[in-house]
Amino acid sequence: MSDSKQPSAEVAAFGRDVAILRAEIGKRIVGQAPIVDGVLTCLLAGGHALLEGVPGLGKTMLVRTLSEALALSFSRVQFTPDLMPADIVGTTVIDENDAGRKEFQFRPGPIFANIVLADEVNRATPKTQSALLEVMQEHSVTVAKTTHKLEQPFFVLATQNPLEMEGTYPLPEAQLDRFLFKLHVEFPSREELHTILDRTTGTEVPQIKPVLDKQRVLAMMRVVRDVAVARHVQDYAIRLVEATHPPTPGRAGAGPDIVKKFVRFGASPRGAQSILVAAKIQALFGGRFGASVDDVRAVAKAALRHRMILNFEGEAEGVRTDQVLDEILRVVPETAGASKPASKA
């Protein structure tokens, strides 16, 4: 950007539009500010979000509210054990054309929308979940050797119940890796519950109106890509991802003792990509045009918690990936070669 004033103007416009969008969502969604910002981060990064929490916490309501606040097409897929891949991506059927001749025609599935709610995604079988692999990574669907491109922006927001609940299947690792963030939806506070009850048990129903259109969302996504990242900040993100990997034959582990003891597989390169683009958005949220180490730290857990696989010992002892990441963030120095605190298992 040649004009030095242009970045500051774009940052200000970005922050203003995000504030407008947050306010519109806040008409219906009470609290949950970190979750709302996490979802907006995934949308503006061109990624996808996975929300996990017990039923009744407003996960589906958040997605519906976001779709109403944006002038984008929206569809919802309710994942059930009998759902088939064709029910999601679409299928080819034999139909008659205007001349009366029969021909194959592609009938698009609900995945062909700008915002797709994959509701209770872990209640479908792995076979059906795999239908999302191509579309989430390449934003396209291949049916009968024909590839159909999806309109941009394309954003999948999936909700899932904790695996301890009845009728759930673990998501395949390849699918989990395609989510930019995994966000944990927590139970609201007492004051937030009062507000929720006031809004939902009375006669007034908050109405949501579109505040941003497709072109503005795409423009904001382009601004994100222009945000500067210093080399040492990028290096810190890389070292965090490296620290999630336990030692393997021919490769020493860079992580603390808790990784060596409880982690089977670490995060993929997509984890580093997710951290960096999310850190850029975190900087824009703060009114800055350059990502910092603090921005990387702020997004690291959401970007990496679903990309780490614990070993048998970790699962048996009830270790959570967030515990491992807390220790990684504690011991990995901000500057390569600097001294670090002693690791604890």
Could you write a compact summary of the structure shown?
The protein is of the alpha/beta class and 345 residues long. It is 44% helix and 17% strand.
SSE run: HHEHEEHEEEHHEEEHEHEHEHHEHEHEHH
Annotation field: number of helices: 15
Biggest β-sheet strands, sense, barrel:
5 strands, parallel
Strand order of the largest sheet: 3-6-9-1-10
Strand content: 15-25%
Total domain units? 2
Q: Indicate the overall shape.
A: globular
**Count of strand segments:** 15
Uncertain segments: none
CATH superfamily of the largest domain: P-loop containing nucleotide triphosphate hydrolases
Q: What integer value in Å does the Rg equal?
A: 22 Å
* Helix vs. strand class: alpha/beta
What percent of the residues sit in helical stretches (DSSP H or I)? 40-55%
* Spatial gap, N to C terminus: 47 Å
Based on the structure given, which CATH architecture of the largest domain is correct?
3-Layer(aba) Sandwich
